[in-house]
């Protein structure tokens, strides 16, 4: 153990603060000594991003490339990805980036994937009407799901293609048709709503955003998302006016950005939030404890409860 700590001391010299070094050494000392090299799990993680060349996909892949938890990052898109992957491989981290392009190579991209991030969508989908967005994106996602169900049905599927509230159930049905549906491995990525909620609550309470956690449930649409401010950490003490303003700001955040950036939506913050979710998912796979994220997932909520929520909404 002393030799390992000595080597870590050399590794962190001039590259990492003493605080971070001490924290990592404490983690190493506390891990199961029966496991080789005192590491969490032995899972080799390959993460595949489908739709990687888009406005969200590119910054997302850059963030994932920096994670020491991911051994291989595979980028796929209809558009060429070779140059993009080559540039990413110049980033000096251990994660290896592989690239595939075109429908014919989707199966190769998905092969041996532990996590698949689905971002594929029509160009400029965020500026379309909800009906048009659903029609065009659903056709794209169905093509991906047909291959996914054959090649990597046991992989964890994180869906970021909008409209998430409709695309995720469609993915579930596509998997059910081939007998590959597992509700524990299908997620709609709604982390952007939690990230925004954390930011707005931090501003309201005058604390650092990194310290705040606000659960946001109900999916990823203005009409259905519910920021559970009563469960906000570390403090949930809000006036009625603050509750109303925070809820409205969280629900209207996307529209407010589109008013200032027409046609561009929020690719950077969405990529940040998506990267956080994917890395949390990888941590869970590797056995890290106490990993908590909000997502849109299959559930067995009773119909009576749903009707009650709708009735409350209608009376507002």
Automatic annotation (TrEMBL):
Residues 190-302 form the Lactate/malate dehydrogenase C-terminal domain. SUPFAM superfamilies: LDH C-terminal domain-like (SSF56327), NAD(P)-binding Rossmann-fold domains (SSF51735). One of its GO terms (molecular function) is L-malate dehydrogenase (NAD+) activity. InterPro entries: Lactate/malate_DH_C (IPR022383), Lactate/malate_DH_N (IPR001236), Lactate_DH/Glyco_Ohase_4_C (IPR015955), NAD(P)-bd_dom_sf (IPR036291). Pfam families: Ldh_1_C (PF02866), Ldh_1_N (PF00056). Its EC number is 1.1.1.37. GO terms for biological process: tricarboxylic acid cycle. Keywords: NAD, Oxidoreductase, Tricarboxylic acid cycle. It is an enzyme of class 1 (oxidoreductase). Transmembrane segments: none annotated. The keyword NAD applies. Residues 45-188 form the Lactate/malate dehydrogenase N-terminal domain. PANTHER family: MALATE AND LACTATE DEHYDROGENASE, MALATE DEHYDROGENASE, MITOCHONDRIAL. Homodimer. This is Malate dehydrogenase, mitochondrial. It comes from Callosobruchus maculatus.
